[in-house]
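Lecture 7 notes: from sequence to structure.
We start with the chain below.
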Amino acid sequence: MALAGHDGRLFEQANDSVAGIADAVAPGLAADIDRPYFLFGHSLGAMIAYEVAARLVRYGMPPVGLLVSGARAPQVRKRGTVLHELSRRDFIAAVRGMQEVPNPNLHNDDLLDVILPTMRADFKAAETYFRPVCPALPAPIVAFHGSQDSDISEADVGEWAACTSEAFALHTLPGGHLFITSAESQLLGLVEAVVTALPSKRR
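Predicted structure tokens for the same chain:
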């Protein structure tokens, strides 16, 4: 399901609110759910996955588990530089500096003119997301953290424990914020182990 401003909806205005994105995604996802399921998200995707899960719980359709990667918990405020408010030049430089694997799209000025509004909206959604208290999901949460992530600490990720009434686990992998790419094989191995370890009656 593509979000506004992404993939096949590239020229639509992107939503700059995690709650707004979740409101748009959850109803359509609920209509397609016909079996037990997990939700996984990285960075902004983790925040969206949590908010979608909370809405699906209200629909009586809780996930089997939530897997969150590279994201501070909802009740942890963003600290440090707010990237979405930077000038074009500084914003692009900051995003380029986050890449552990060079992204040629970030060096194509014509393409940047198209994708920059969506990039800013995504960063604004992630950087402004905050819940003083996070409702506890009736599903286990497994969190993943990059050991060299300069923006999000292991303690920030560990706070996801308050967002579940069931089990919580935290795994730290080598790499920075984009360890999802640099440590992909390790991450996939852990995700597979998490999924297969749950009781069969829940799968």
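Points to note: The longest strand covers residues 141-146. Residues 109-128 form the longest helix (20 residues).
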